[in-house]
Amino acid sequence: MYIENTIDQLKLKYENEPEFLQAVEEVFHAAEPLIKAHPEYEKADLLMRMAEPERMIRFKVVWTDDKGKVRTNVGYRCQFNGAIGPYKGGLRFQKNVNESIIKFLGFEQTFKNALTGLPIGGGKGGADFDPSGKSDGEIMRFCQSYMSALYRYIGPDRDVPAGDMGVGKREIGYLFGQYRRLKGNFENGVLTGKGLSYGGSLIRPEATGYGAVYYLCEVLKHENDTIEGKRIGVSGYGNVAWGIMKKAAELGGKVTYFSGPDGYIHDEDGVDTPEKIAFIEKMRREDPMHCEPYAKKFGCRFVAGEKFWGVRDVDILMPAAVQNDVDLEHAEKIAASGVKYYIEVANMPTVYEALEYLRKCRGIIVAPSKAVNAGGVGVSALEMSQNAERLSWSEEEIDGRLKQMMVKIYEASVKAAEEYGLGYDLVAGANIAGFKKVAEAMMEEGIF
Ligand code: 2IT
Fold first, then answer.
1. Which listed residue (124, 194, 276, 370) is catalytic?
2. CATH number at residue 101
3. Residue 426: which of 347, 359, 335 has the closest Cα?
4. Is residue 124 annotated as a catalytic residue, yes or no?
5. Do 31 and 98 share a structural domain?
6. Whose Cα sits closest to atom 3 in ligand 1?
7. pLDDT value, residue 37
8. How deeply is 362 buried, as exposed, middle or buried, from its count of CB atoms within 10 A (0-12, 13-18, 19+)?
């Protein structure tokens, strides 16, 4: 009753924030056995306090385009939960960004960050700015204006943004430059995903995708299986999908399907050569809206305007593009296809009913994104450590720590589900483990 009542109240209060409500519902339901075992949570109004961000900063971002026209966008930074560390999470620059999307991402980030085992709280930000077709000068001026509004709210011990969709190394560079200009101090621990020349970490660009593959390998191990020879369908072809392609190829698997907003590619041979992987990276940088050029370049099949969910010639599916990529109809096709592994990678890639449906299907193992994609922010936390110590670790060191982190996240999830009598349930396990850590800190820090 406590969980349902809280969700009902939130639905009344935030009826215009569907993504946020979906994320809350998913976490609270998945963590139900833990919440039920702790009646003191209700007394402390813990669920409502967890669902309410500590702070939501909204600001205007005014900039001038190359034609001299003044443009006005809206920027956000949601400092969701700081109980276990400074707020940490990416910035998303995308046309459709709104308060609900930023809030859902901040909420998810809180539990994901807890799962990494590192001291980082949850935050997220962004702007309703569409980076496509913008010149380098326009991107720079936008980033400078964005940071002029944001800099007073962030800092290495307060809130540490990073990239997300539409924000990569170039944008982080312009954002950091403006922060430094305004603050005067060289505080490079204020942002992660930086270039290597001013304190960025090796492996950060690859970390989310690499981490996802390390996690996948643990799931396969549990089934007495390996990644060797496996065919993987990955939605998207951004930074995360690219990291998956690289690591899967290195370990003997191959990505045979991937997609973009324009349709999907089927490459039977797999995206497994340095040339193909480099092409994907370049294609994303030059045009994040179209993956068709890959088919032309490498002579494989492109299907316009469709998604590949439900194809029979894959062993593993990894949605790695956007939220709500897989709906109930897709989920039914996936179940009918006989695929055994459904490994979420993007933040909330599965519509709630679709996720519940897949979780109930026999023969499909479902892994939740907040565990699978945690390697990205995990390596961001390692970047913060390196900046604090004013040194940089080697590639082997970071890749080794990343792998260890993913194994620990997987093991903690398995253990948490077993502890609450749920058997092998990676979705419930990850939610319980993440929730537990945040809840403990909030209970110990007092009522506020
Ligand atoms: O969704 C995510 O975890 C990220 N966009 C990365 C956040 C970070 O701080 O590295």
1. 124
2. 3.40.50.10860
3. 359
4. yes
5. no
6. 377
7. 97
8. exposed
